[in-house]
Amino acid sequence: MPAVRTHQPTPKRRVPRQERSRRRVEGLLDAAARLVVERGVESLTTRDIAEAAGAPVASLYQYFADKDAVLLALAARDMEEMDAQVVEDLGALEVLSVAGVVRATMTAFVTVYHRRRAFVEIYLRGRTNAAVHRFGREHNARVAEMLHAFAVDAGLAGPTLTPDMALLAVEVGDRVFQLAFENDDDGDPALIEEGITMVTAYLERYATPEGRAGIPR
């Protein structure tokens, strides 16, 4: 059975090499995450982040150019966790089918949304930030590329499923999450379930017979 391939480039910034510096960066990101949950994205400042982390503002600027760079690094960290959760949940499937892959992928996203409240604020509710919006679209494209390759390699979908169709499915799922988490920190379960049903029905149009019936691993 094919392996799931992921590729998650992170925004360009100075990468800390010493353990002490890595801990400092993680502390800054953790502080930013707490403030985002408490105050939202728009009111966040680099000075607030540094103070919450117990670090001088100059220390923050050693690693991040501005607030957007902090938000992107935080989003990248959480997206990396999300991608790992998708891989883990897909790997746990005993039977591969289009319906099973869609459900496993979308519920993996929800699992990380529940763990990473700041990500909900930054990514699902903070799309007015142009940098976050662009980064999110790039991530969607990578997820679509990975899932398309996985579905074709596993025999779940044939050549009629194009990369553009896979991207459309991911974008629709992404919009479902935006709506589900817009006013509900846990995500409206009815909306999420409807989204899973909708994306599954769309992709099953391009599934192989085995992809609809299921392939034991």
UniProtKB/TrEMBL annotation:
**Organism from which the protein derives:** Nocardioides koreensis
Q: One Pfam match, by short name? A: TetR_N
- List residues of the HTH tetR-type domain: 22-82
Positions of the DNA-binding region? 45-64
Q: What domain of life is recorded for the organism?
A: Bacteria
Location of the region described as Disordered in the Swiss-Prot/TrEMBL record? 1-21
Name assigned to this protein: TetR/AcrR family transcriptional regulator
Q: Which UniProt keywords apply?
A: DNA-binding, Transcription, Transcription regulation
